[in-house]
Amino acid sequence: MRIGLLTESGYPYATGESGRWCDRLVRGLPEHDFDIFALTRGRPAPVGDPPVPRQVRRVRTAPLLGPAALAAPLGGSAGRRWRRRFAEHFGQLVSAVCAPGQRQPAGSGPSGPGPAADPGFAEALYGLAELAREHPGLPGALRSEAAARILERACRTPRALPAVNAAQPADLLAVAEELERRLRPLSLDWHADDEKGLGSLDLCHATSSGAAALPGLLAKRFHGVPLLVTEHGSGLREHYLDRSRAPLGAPARALLASFRGRTAAEVYDRAAVVTAGNTHVRRWQQRCGADPARMQTVYPGWEDHGLTAVAEPEADDAADTSDSGRTLVWVGHVEPSKDLVALLHAFARVRREMPGARLLIAETGPRGGASAGHPESTVYTAHCRALAAQLFPDEAASALAVGDNPVAFEPVGGLEIPRLADAYTAGGVAVLSSVVEGFPIGLVESMFAARATVSTDVGAVCEVIGGTGLVVPPRNPRALADACLALLRDSGRRARLGAAARARALELFTVEQNVSSYRGLYLELVSHCPVEREEAGPDGGPLLFGRTAESSVPGSWAAAAAPVAVPAARTRTVPIAASPVRGGVPHRAGTAPDPVGPKAARVLRGGEGRA
Amino acid sequence: MSTHPTPPGECAEGGATPARSGPVRRGSVDPVRALMQRHRALCERAVDPLEIAAGLEAHGVTDRTAARFRHRDVFSLAEELYARVPRAAQAPVAPSVPAAARAERDRPGARGLLRAAVYLLPGVLATTPAAALLLLDEADPAVRFAAAAAGLVLVALALRPCLRRGPLRVRRGARSAAPAVCWLLGYALLGDGLLARGLGTAEASVSASSAVLTAALVFAVAPAAWCARWFAVRAHRGLAASRHLDEFASGSRPLVPAAVTLFALALGILLLSAETLRVLALPDDPGEYGRHAVAPAAVAALGILLFVARLLAVHGRPRAVLVGVGAAVAVEASALAVALVSRLPGCEALAAPVRAAVAAYGPAVVPLGACAPAALLLLVLATVLLARASAHSGRPAAWGQSTSRPAARAEPSRDSPMTHHLLGDEER
């Protein structure tokens, strides 16, 4: 089937963590055709074709930021009627944005009022999209004086949010400019019904709930293409964090936040399935009005970097006296939020109880390939080294040997630790001492490496570790030391926890698990929400009898031999088998049937309980 | 699995309950108060509870932390904070001029001198061919054309940095009126000669007087940049100070006429000194005083037309520019065409009005008649259009600013590990 991947993160041009996920997904599903619709940020897209796998049929790119072409093309300016309709729709949009959020029905999600899907907002959005299809003057109209006046009027109404009442012209202009950028996807030429457009897709997969999801919304609205939304970080939350640093007045921030929230709510409302990369994102999505019945948590999956080949620890007494059995290992990028100071204090306590213990601090670069050598982290590393030298004097085996420090700072990729796996091989227990943490990927890696872990209870640690490691409160070196000692002294427990952790990680956090989840979701969506299309004949006219009558009949009436007592849930599986979504389109003919059959059945059985 | 020492998932209260033998934490009956104190800036600045929730999470507050404050989740904790902390008074909008630019303005140093040099360079370069033309007054027309062409190339190169950066930079990609402007400038240099040749009164040539006046016009780039900057900064200051769009419109309406007047004064002084120089170097027969005033007036009209057009283009109104400049070009081109056509047999009568006007006031009457009404039209349009707030979105261009990206978009600095949550760290 043809899947439209709507990206905002720079894939296929940039290679961030999110881009890598898109790449893994596309490469993992060679049986489908992908059309990539990329909104690039900032600089225009690089010249030339990015390296994409063969199943990507087309890459279409549009800049999300940057200057807009304001002047209308030579066709002349929009007519009076167009402008009047624009004023109408834009007025409706901004009055919805200015209105306070509706209270969600009780019990549908986390407490309190949050953005909820707003029919007025949605209608205005689609109205603007229709206007943009008729005439390319939407960006210019959004930045015009008329738009600013409409915005001002909406802010001054008594029903508006208190924060926006005091909006000044500078705020209004900043908001109009930002709205123009956010609504730029409406004006793109992606919405055509032709072979290249969104209308020819079987499924839209948006990788954010913001601007990238807007084309998906329109495809859903105008062509009936089902929409799948995946978020690995809450877009709304990132919006708040970004905007809180921007030099904007409070009214402008309030308006933009309200717009972003309402967009997300509308996207969640229209999406057939919303998937979250972890529970934290899921909570934000639910807060924005996503329906829990249509939500799923799908962990994005991480490459194991050869960690699954690391041998499981031995559970015998020899392990307790071996070097690796007495070594704690910490892997990560040294920065203040990792609280290595607490780790060193805890280790001092461990040494008091168990004099042979060692600590290996394996320094990796920052995650996501960000610029290395941040001054703050450099200073912190130096501080930690000084503290380690102060707390632990160098020690040697005998009076004649050269000593070394029980705390070793080694860079991964250096002489001592050439690969990440070697860091885990060298240690028996992996420690995580952060005070602030998002989704701890380091913890996932130590689970892949079958190491028992001691972590602080921050961020998503409990979600990741499940029951397969010890968790202590943050900023509590004493508890950390006790937990480490408990594991260092008990090799059997260490081995059991390590094996359980590896099993859990292989079940939940592998790339294959992620890809197969999406394979199932795609098939399920296309079978439940097929796109209704007129079959076109060779001359472009409607093709009579292009689709068999049975294809739209629920149940297996066509198959006379089918038993009468078909279970209710089974009936939904039939459209896949009877009609692979679109009979008349040649490019799918060869690809669909073979790989789809058994998998579809399997996936649907899995999906029945959920739906 | 044994439960020693801390079973996973049972640690929510661990941080709050004091350790048995450790130091007892100082506690208060209102634990939220301390949190409020710590995140006061965040709470005062927040526009809704979700913003506080996002900020708290970036500082490591999780649902289990929120449970310590007797809340169900971070969202409800954020709501309490939002309700309890009064919003900060509306902070004054950021100063219109960036701090760096202001410091630079207050303390003109080497950069200021360099800037002045950049804007004066085209004028200086333009004087060379003008002086050469003055000296080569009796020389072969081909030599004079060559001198004029060389000067043009130099001036065009020197004008590039003036128009690509700073206050005369056109920000957004739009249909350009550059061909029309080139026509106007070319006519100022060559038009009089062509017209005279078309009418059969003289040979086509670059006259020294038009070259001198054009050089003065090129000098006017410096005051034009200064006036444009003054206008943008004043308008932006008005934008920051006004509370309504109408208030801004009424306050900023006199700005365009004021800027144009300032520029016209500067241009007048330049033209006057150029004319004085020319008369000193090349004294004419004293019988044509009235005709001498027409040529500088035509150049002044052209200068004002170009200035207003640039102002409109800088503030995102390229269509108005096309209308005004296009009208002037049409008038000039039709005069020239009529003059050329009149050489055909039987068509002499067509050029009679042009011929009469040129006989009375000299050939400069044509550009004056073309540019003055167009300049007036554009002035009226600019007074109306540039008094609107929508013409002043974004910061006024700083002197050295050359990129076409809007300055308002500040790239977020992502310093907290919570911010690049899992897959959120995108490479921009």
Give an overview of the whole structure.
Chain B: The chain crosses the membrane at residues 112-136, 142-159, 180-199, 211-233, 254-273, 293-313, 320-344, 364-387. Chain B: It comes from Streptomyces meridianus. Chain B: Residues 1-29, 395-428 are annotated as: Disordered. Chain B: Residues 411-428 have a biased composition (Basic and acidic residues). Chain B: This is Integral membrane protein. Chain A: It holds the Pfam family DUF3492. The complex is a heterodimer of chains A (611) and B (428). With 611 residues, chain A is of the alpha/beta class. Chain A is 44% helix and 11% strand. Chain A has helices at 17-28, 80-98, 119-134, 138-142, 145-156, 169-182, 213-223, 235-245, 250-270, 279-287, 317-321, 340-353, 375-391, 420-426, 441-448, 461-465, 477-489, 491-508, 511-528, 568-571, 574-578, 586-589, 593-610, and strands at residues 2-7, 33-40, 56-63, 203-206, 227-231, 273-276, 295-297, 327-332, 358-363, 407-411, 429-432, 452-456, 470-472. In chain A, helix 2 (80-98) packs antiparallel against helix 3 (119-134), helix 15 crosses helix 18 (491-508) and helix 19 packs across helix 23. Chain A folds into three domains: 37-297, no CATH class; 307-509, Glycogen Phosphorylase B (Rossmann fold, 3-Layer(aba) Sandwich); 532-610, no CATH class. A seven-stranded parallel beta sheet of chain A has the order 3-2-1-4-5-6-7, sandwiched between helices. Chain A has a six-stranded parallel beta sheet with strand order 10-9-8-11-12-13, sandwiched between helices. Chain B has 428 residues and is an all-alpha fold. Chain B has two domains: 31-84, no CATH class; 110-392, no CATH class. Chain B has 17 helices and no strands. In chain B, helix 7 packs antiparallel against helix 10. Chain B starts with 30 loop residues before the first helix and ends in a 43-residue tail after the last helix. The model of chain B is unreliable at 1-22, 92-100, 285-290 and 403-428 (pLDDT under 50). At the A-B interface, helix 1, helix 5, helix 6, helix 8 and helix 9 of A face helix 3 and helix 5 of B.
